[in-house]
């Protein structure tokens, strides 16, 4: 049995894609789920890039047990130092540093000669090793690099102390057969690679990220970098669930190469990511899409009913797709709610639990049955903080055709009441303008999305917003059976996060 390490970069490569920003709480939450899924490594972020990134990586390193926690760093001292500081409290930690090795990147992006790049790579790996004993080195744009130069830099950084060598197809340019033979050449020409973990990191620009990664595995790599739902820069990264199930279902082809992933957590992990980012996967997405196990055509259904394996190559239960039948209602009380929250994998302190309980009662008043999805939506509204935040107490809107939409709002902060009214393009805009008058932050609303949770007329609406402040994006979410209220809650959620961060920076 040879083990294939799963290195998850959902929180770094995935999160940096437009529209996928997550709050610190959401990232910690998701990292905890990744630990449950049993990934080997979590790339938790790019610590030097912003205070929020640094703080998220620091909190994940401090609280998430099991996987190795890594921070990304360019081959620059300040980056490496920030990554080392952010991950230092993890039981297993590491620094992932990278530099481009292709002629086009070295010449136009770095404006450096190959000799200079080689020197920087070796010095950076040495410096990183002086701060942490686990260092991964990536040769960015490896698939467009000169093979001889790539081999030289790999053997030099291994001598300098790198324990993982990553070969990325950064621009998603490779074809599986070609990528596989490149990997096999590297492994046979650089004997030092036998003493380290050899990793691949493929992008999906031609839809080949998973195929290329699996070609890598077939040709001897021992680690695959991937993201849940395949999210990531541009067309995304190789999808974790597809890699894992590819290796699992086709053991006959891959031999005894196996991951240690708990496959029953694949679907719950995918769903959680959807909740945290507000972005759903396409229905026909392999493994986790809504239709991935739906058999519609009559001929298929007939065959499936006679013998499931006629049309099914894996069982839905095996990837965690069993619909929860548990439904809560007002009568479930504190005890029932607490139990369900624990089963969903959330750990809350008393204060947070009381907040969630209050929201649960509000929702079960309007909606008889509260589903897991509803519960997860309100759990994601929490902002962990030491400061008092603005809470929505009251709102009233008037809106219609041939009239100016207006909103009156009352917010409460530290028992103090704030009232304002404003007009806007529509009722949501009017509410946001009234909130802005009270909170007084300079912000720009970047994205607004709304979707219905569960089905039926009394379904909850979940609103996701991304609000930009000082060049940083702050996500917020809110849920209610009233979409104007959900919109107000989401906006406030995001503004409160900005206020928490301001306080945090002030303390530093
Ligand atoms: Zn990438």
In total, the number of domains comes to 3
How large a portion of the residues is in β-strands, by DSSP E?
Answer: 15-25%
| Distinct compounds present | zinc ion
Q: What do the pLDDT scores average to?
A: 91
Strand order of the largest sheet: 2-3-4-5-6-7-8-9
Per the CATH scheme, the topology name of the largest domain is: TIM Barrel
Full CATH superfamily name of the largest domain:
Aldolase class I
CATH class of the largest domain: Alpha Beta
User: Which segments are poorly predicted (pLDDT under 50) over 5 or more consecutive residues?
Assistant: none
Report the helical percentage. 40-55%
What structural category do the secondary elements indicate?
alpha/beta
Biggest sheet record:
8 strands, parallel, barrel
- Write down the overall geometry: globular
Number of helices: 18
CATH architecture of the largest domain: Alpha-Beta Barrel
| Beginning-to-end CA distance, first to last residue | 49 Å
Note down, in words, how this protein is organized.
The protein is of the alpha/beta class. It has three domains: 2-277, Aldolase class I (TIM Barrel), CATH 3.20.20.70; 330-379; 391-507, Alpha-isopropylmalate synthase LeuA, regulatory domain (Double Stranded RNA Binding Domain, 2-Layer Sandwich). It has 18 helices and 16 strands. It has helices at 10-14, 24-37, 51-63, 77-87, 103-110, 114-131, 147-159, 176-189, 209-218, 240-249, 251-254, 266-277, 298-306, 333-343, 350-366, 372-379, 427-439, 483-507, and strands spanning 2-3, 5-8, 41-45, 68-74, 93-100, 135-140, 164-169, 197-202, 223-226, 257-258, 391-398, 406-413, 416-423, 444-452, 461-469, 472-480. Strand 11 and strand 12 form a beta hairpin. Helix 2 (24-37) packs parallel to helix 3. The two termini are 49 Å apart. The mean pLDDT is 91. Zinc ion binds next to loops.
């Amino acid at each position: 049995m040879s083990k294939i390490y799963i290195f998850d970069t959902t929180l770094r490569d995935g999160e940096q894609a437009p529209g996928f920003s997550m709050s610190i709480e959401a990232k910690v939450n998701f990292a905890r789920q990744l630990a449950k899924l049993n990934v080997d490594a979590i790339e938790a972020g790019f610590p030097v890039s912003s205070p929020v990134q640094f703080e998220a990586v620091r909190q994940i390193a401090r609280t998430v047990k099991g996987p190795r926690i890594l921070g990304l760093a360019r081959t620059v001292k300040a980056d490496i130092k920030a990554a080392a500081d952010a991950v230092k409290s993890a039981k297993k930690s590491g620094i992932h540093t990278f530099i481009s090795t292709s002629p086009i990147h070295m010449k136009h992006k770095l404006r450096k000669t190959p000799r200079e790049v080689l020197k920087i790579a070796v010095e950076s790996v040495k410096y990183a090793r002086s701060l942490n004993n686990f260092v991964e080195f990536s040769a960015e744009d490896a698939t467009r690099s000169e093979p001889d130069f790539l081999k030289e830099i790999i053997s030099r950084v291994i001598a300098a102390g790198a324990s993982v060598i990553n070969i990325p197809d950064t621009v998603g340019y490779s074809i599986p057969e070609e990528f596989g033979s490149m990997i096999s050449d590297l492994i046979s020409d650089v004997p030092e690679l036998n003493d380290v973990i050899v990793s691949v990191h493929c992008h999906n620009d031609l839809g080949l990220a998973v195929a290329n990664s699996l070609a890598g595995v077939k040709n001897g790599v021992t680690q695959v970098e991937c993201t849940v739902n395949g999210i990531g820069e541009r067309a995304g990264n190789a999808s974790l669930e597809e890699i894992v199930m590819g290796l699992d279902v086709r053991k006959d082809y891959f031999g005894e190469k196996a991951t240690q992933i708990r496959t029953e957590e694949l679907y719950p992990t995918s769903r959680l990511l959807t909740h945290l980012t507000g972005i759903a996967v396409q229905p026909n997405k392999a493994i986790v899409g809504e239709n991935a196990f739906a058999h519609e055509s009559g001929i298929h259904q007939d065959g499936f009913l006679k013998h499931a394996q006629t049309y099914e190559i894996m069982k839905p239960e095996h990837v965690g797709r069993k619909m929860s039948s548990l439904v809560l209602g007002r009568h479930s009380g504190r005890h029932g709610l607490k139990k369900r929250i624990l089963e969903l994998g959330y750990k809350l302190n008393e204060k947070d639990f009381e907040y969630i309980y209050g929201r649960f009662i509000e929702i079960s008043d309007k909606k008889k049955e509260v589903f897991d999805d509803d519960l997860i939506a309100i759990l994601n509204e929490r902002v962990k903080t030491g400061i008092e935040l603005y809470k929505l107490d009251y709102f009233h809107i008037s809106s219609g055709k041939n009239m100016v939409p207006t909103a009156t709002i009352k917010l409460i902060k530290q028992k103090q009441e704030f009232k304002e009214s404003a007009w806007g393009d529509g009722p949501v805009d009017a509410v946001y303008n009234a909130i802005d008058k009270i909170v007084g932050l300079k912000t720009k609303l970047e994205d607004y999305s709304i979707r219905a949770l569960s089905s039926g007329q009394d379904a909850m609406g979940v609103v996701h917003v991304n609000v930009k402040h000082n060049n940083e994006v702050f996500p917020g979410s809110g849920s209610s059976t009233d979409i104007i209220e959900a919109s107000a809650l989401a906006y406030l959620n995001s503004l409160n996060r900005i206020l928490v961060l301001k306080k945090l920076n002030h303390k530093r």
